[in-house]
Design brief:
By secondary structure, the protein is of the alpha/beta class. The protein folds into 3 domains: 143 residues, Pyruvate-ferredoxin Oxidoreductase, domain 3 (3-Layer(aba) Sandwich), CATH 3.40.920; 234 residues, Thiamin diphosphate (ThDP)-binding fold, Pyr/PP domains (Rossmann fold); 105 residues, Rossmann fold, CATH 3.40.50.920. It is built from 17 helices and 19 strands. Helix 1 runs parallel beside helix 3, helix 1 crosses helix 4 and helix 14 crosses helix 17. The radius of gyration is 24 Å and the shape is globular.
């Protein structure tokens, strides 16, 4: 069973609350949900919508065909009615306008009735989330206005809902983060907000600097003093940070960077999604120095990978970059899985003010920390920096650098990374294909080349223009992937459409 329902209206009308009420109600009933958010870069007006996907099995994507529309304005119906399946439903706002700001609650009640869930369960959820007479009245009237279309009986699944942003926040807290520096930039900003709301509870500091240059440099100063530090930004902000990132490479001060990609160069499409910052994550900054680049595909992986990033940064005095995007950061995933037990992050490096003098400089230095231009020392230091890659790679083998999904013995190999993994996993369920999900992009697993050599047909799936993972794999393996499915319109893959694209290549 799978349903896809669009919930739409103007910015400021509260469509996210409809999704929240319905998603939580369904989760309590044992159903899996995936909630995709689509909105333009405006505060009021325009057309915002969520696509809420519902299933009795785990899902991590939405589809293009709709089973229903929940409309907070007439424009939502005009925009989406062509995507409706036969025997679909439409809930219009006309009968609930009297409820004003509780219009969204009435619509949530109407949708709960259509799904066939008992009214008592709806009322309990409204009391839990809102608990005021107006909201309860709106929910009840919305419920009574509809007739049951589906019969979603309670399932025995224990499910939690989490966004990628909340997951990165949890991973940082699990790692004992001391300070988070950031300047607001969509889609990285939700982590700033989430951590700010948790700082008193978890005894950490969240600080908004005046710009991204200040963010990165302040972070290095705080880390130098012994704090566990993370910074967050999107592509444009990361550009500004790269000089400080090179400073990290020379000083070897541990740093964790959360990089949430947006669509296009410059401002691009600021509230939409693409996987186009892999290149700058891998190579951004001047000079050559080690770094780690890891890309989770869902919130459970994001919790674990954020913890790994702190661990590796501290163990190897390097920069660990967590690569995400708007689709992962702001979509809401449901899951029965629990993240693995977090690693304890120990600070074992010399800290200023303790036993001895500690020096860090942007200059090449000798073993005493004094600046040098000696060619022998310059070469020796460069060799030692690059040699650390092998040490990092050896350590990373303790983790899942890659994952396999689908038919494990298939000769058809799909390769992808990050937020596209959810749509790929859902798309290949009935296909003769194996999905190799790359989590560690730097360092890269040696097993990838082995799998590519054994495959009969390879398909690259990415959310960017040039196939940046494909370019990395060609560089590291010598194998060029000719079959590529690329999406770069700012919207994520929809699993039913992706399934047909993959099927065409396999045929």
């Amino acid at each position: 069973m799978r349903l896809n329902i669009v919930i739409g209206g103007k910015a400021g009308q509260g469509i996210n609350k409809v999704s929240e009420i319905v998603s939580q109600t369904l989760t309590n009933q044992g159903y899996f949900t995936f909630n995709y958010r689509d909105y333009p870069s405006i505060i009021r007006g325009g057309h915002n919508f969520n696509i809420l996907s519902i299933s009795d099995k785990k899902i991590e994507s939405h589809e293009s065909k709709l089973d229903g529309i929940v409309a907070m304005d007439d424009n939502t119906i005009k925009v989406h009615e062509k995507a409706l399946k036969k025997d679909s439903f439409v809930i219009k706002p006309d009968n609930f306008l009297e409820f004003g700001r509780n219009l969204n609650v009435a619509l949530a009640g109407a949708l709960i009735k259509i799904l066939g869930i008992d009214k008592k369960i709806l009322i309990e959820e409204i009391k839990e989330q809102l608990n005021n007479p107006e909201s309860l009245k709106a929910a009840e009237k919305g419920y009574e206005s509809q007739t049951k279309k589906f019969d979603l009986k309670k399932l025995n699944n224990k499910i939690t809902i989490l966004s990628g942003s909340k997951a990165v926040t949890q991973g940082a807290i699990n790692s004992g983060i001391d300070i988070y520096f950031a300047y607001p930039m969509t889609p990285a900003t939700p982590v700033l907000h989430e951590l700010a709301s948790e700082q008193l509870k978890h005894n950490c500091l969240v600080f908004q600097n005046e710009n991204e240059i200040a963010v990165a440099n302040a972070a290095l100063g705080a880390s130098f003093s012994g704090a566990k530090v993370m910074v967050g930004t999107s592509g444009g902000g990361y550009d500004l940070m790269t000089e400080a990132l090179s400073l990290q490479g020379m000083t070897e001060i541990p740093l964790v960077v959360y990089l949430a990609s947006r669509a296009g160069p410059a401002t691009g499409i600021p509230t939409y999604t693409m996987q186009n910052d892999l290149g700058i994550a891998l190579y951004g900054g001047h000079g050559e120095f080690p770094r780690v680049v890891i890309a989770p595909g869902n919130p459970i992986e994001a919790i674990e990978i954020t913890n790994h990033a702190f661990y590796l940064a501290e163990k190897f005095n390097t920069a660990s970059i967590i690569l995400s995007d708007k689709h992962l950061a702001e979509s809401e995933f449901s899951s029965e899985e629990k993240p693995s037990k977090p690693l304890k992050i120990k600070i074992e490096r010399p800290i200023p003010g303790e036993k001895k003098v500690v020096k860090a400089s942007s200059y090449e230095s000798d073993k005493y920390g004094y600046s040098t231009e000696d060619p022998f020392l310059a070469k020796k230091n460069a060799d030692e920096r690059i040699k650390r890659y092998e040490e990092i790679k050896k350590e990373c083998k303790k983790f899942e650098m890659i994952k396999f999904h689908g038919k494990k013995d298939s000769k058809n190999l799909i390769i992808g990374w990050g937020s596209t993994s959810g749509a790929i996993k859902d798309a290949i369920q009935d296909l003769d294909a194996k999905f190799l999900q790359v989590l560690y992009l730097k360092p890269l697993s040696d097993e990838i080349k082995e799998q590519m050599q054994k495959a009969k047909k390879i398909i690259l799936v990415e959310g960017n223009v040039t196939g940046q993972l494909g370019r990395l794999l060609r560089e590291k393996t010598g194998i060029s992937i000719k079959n590529r499915i690329l999406k770069y319109d700012g919207r994520p893959f929809r699993s039913d459409e992706l399934k047909e694209e993959i099927r065409e290549v396999l045929e």
